Fold this sequence. Notes:
By secondary structure, the chain is α+β, with helices and mostly antiparallel strands. It folds into two domains: 5-94, no CATH class; 101-219, Lipocalin. The protein is 30% helix and 40% strand. It has four helices and nine strands. Strands 1, 2, 3, 4, 5, 6, 7, 8 and 9 form a nine-stranded mixed beta sheet that branches.
Amino acid sequence: MAGLTPYSIDSDARKKALLATAAVSMLFAILFNHVLVPSLRSITEKALGQDMVDIIGATGLVSFGGIGALALFGVLWGIFDKYLWKRPFIQRFHGIPDLNGEWCGELISSFKDGSGINKSCPMRLIITQTFSKMQCQSIYPSSCSYSSIACIQGYNPETQSCLLEYAYGNEAGESSVIEASWESDHLGFSRIRCIADKMDGQYFTNRTPGTKGTFSLRRKLP
């Protein structure tokens, strides 16, 4: 299980977001250190007197010290990366789709059963995504897989469409191994066309003989 890993995009949205966050951090730090802190200190001195302010400061319970722009940047970037980037009014600026959620449907494999019919099974794709990282976890009746690298390309806000691609490792149980030559664990790659709340994808694996297939999923509503 790889956990969340960085994913690539086909734009410079992240560079712009980093620069914007850095600029906001510097502005807030300047306002806090040179406007807010002196004002608070002045109000406190007038209300309590200089001697009392010094006593309170000596206790360490209250401080009129400044805040560093770098520390503020870390806080603001963490909030943006996890939460703010998904807000519709902010998405309009960076153009990265929010694919978070559970997608459910059916997978059809190139592997055929004894009757010559392509094997099929239910599939769940759970996507966990931040502005900079994501994980795609696919769950089948007898195995599961986790993405190792991922990429989002060609987002069109008008049609809410994009292309999602990711490489994965599958941790299969014994009941999923049909061919004697197949290893229980294998690697694969998925290519998915996402349109609004629907996904249509294809995949292939490195098994010998290799398998491939298609799947169709819909986002599960909350």
